[in-house]
Amino acid sequence: PRKPACPACPLRRSCRARAQGIVEQLPEGRARRATVAVTVAAAIIEREGRVLLVRRPEGPLLGRMWELPQTSLESHGLPDLARELQERHGLRVVPGPLVTRARHAITFRRITLEGYRSRLTRAPGADDPERLRWVAPSAIGSLPVSSATRKLLRGLDSPQLPLPL
User: Fold this and answer.
1) Is 0.70 topped by the overall pTM?
2) Is the model's pLDDT at 14 over the cut of 80?
3) Looking at the DSSP assignment, which residues form a beta bridge with residue 36?
4) Residue 109: how many CB atoms within 10 A of its CB?
5) Measuring CA to CA, how many Å separate 38 from each of 33, 71, 76, 84, 95?
């Protein structure tokens, strides 16, 4: 699109753009969608050296992949964390301190991922390994896990946040 190779093109003799002298103007560019800043809060819940992962439902966006329990892209981050996890997964959590942060991008969204060490107070369906699973960090590589979740878990290994004053 940026540097057409007209002399090497097998259609050069019948090319209307070449005949009209507009090869450099084609193809017409499309206007890009404006980027949107989004904050996603995730609950990092650990038990006996394992972390709790939930499975996303069937769907076009990361369907059936495993991830940390987290808010949707439409949320406001931490203020929505406990409510959304209750509604989406039946999990009752008490969010704790921010322990990891990462950046991620999907199409037009620029996402700030925030991981909060959280305490689980209720987990219905905890015996359903198709929905909820306690996973050792060394076993996460064997599951289909989103790159956003991998980024947050990697951040746990390297302290990166300032201590609160």
Assistant:
1) yes
2) yes
3) 109
4) 14
5) 15, 11, 8, 16, 19
